[in-house]
Amino acid sequence: MASPILSIGYQRKETGNSGESMVCDYLLAKQYKILDRNKFMRTGEIDILAEKGGVTVIVEVKTVTGDKFGQAIGYVNRKKQDKLRQLARELIQILGDDRNIRIDVAGVDFQSGEIDYIENAVTGK
Prior knowledge:
The protein has 125 residues and is α+β, with helices and mostly antiparallel strands.
């Protein structure tokens, strides 16, 4: 029998993956090209790497269940924003200085399927 702690971790990962899939569908409907998912880099992981109109977009996805929706965007605290900026800097080193990179955040209500998408949610260097 699986440990309850492992089961909770697995459920959380599955919920996160489902939320990321929902956001990918949302982005595809908005004419984005999905370049990669769960891209591991030296400084961390990018949930979704997309592109539209010559802009490379790092998308951080936060999926919540139950009555916590509206808080998903709030989970991207200062520490996470700093990590996303580090990932953007690393991506620029890989892709070149001439790339336009934007950091967006998507909050997903797993139960209702509602997506709160914020373009350019994290700014600065």
